[in-house]
Amino acid sequence: MSRQKLVNVMEEMVSGLVRYFLRSPDYQTFCNCDECELEVVAKALNNLPPYYVASKTNREKIFNELKVSKNIETINKEIIRAIYDVGKRRNHVV
Q1: pLDDT tens per residue, range 35-65
Q2: CA dist 84 → 7, 45, 53 (Å)
Q3: Picking from 31-35, 82-86, 89-93, which range would have the lowest pLDDT averaged per residue?
């Protein structure tokens, strides 16, 4: 019997978007080390609702629901807020 794995679709989306943001020209002054990247993801996810699924079909359905512009705008706002918050509290030198 294969064991199904739960997937948080919001976590997948936020992780990908944070990686994109931190490597974009707009955020060159922010650290994009693994530790800071994970801190940004965690901080953003703490302010966004989780969307767990147990199948690939449901993952695609939720992903498509989440990628509408209203949801992306909310997700982006939380990511930007998290980037600035983590940047202010960073405890290592870039």
Answers
A1: 999 999 999 999 999 999 999 999 999 999 9
A2: 27, 15, 30
A3: 89-93
Rounded CA gap, 40 and 20, in Å?
12
Tell me which residue of 25, 19, 22, 15 sits closest to 48, measured CA to CA. 15
Q: What CA–CA distance (Å, rounded) separates 40 from 6?
A: 22
> Is the full-model pTM beyond 0.85?
yes
Phi, psi at residue 53, to the nearest 5°? -135, 160
> Cβ neighbours of residue 77 under 8 Å, at least 6 residues apart?
none
Count of C-beta atoms within a 10 Å radius of residue 37:
20
Q: Per DSSP, which regions of the chain are E strands?
A: 7-8, 52-53
Cα torsion through 70, 71, 77, 79, rounded to 10:
-160
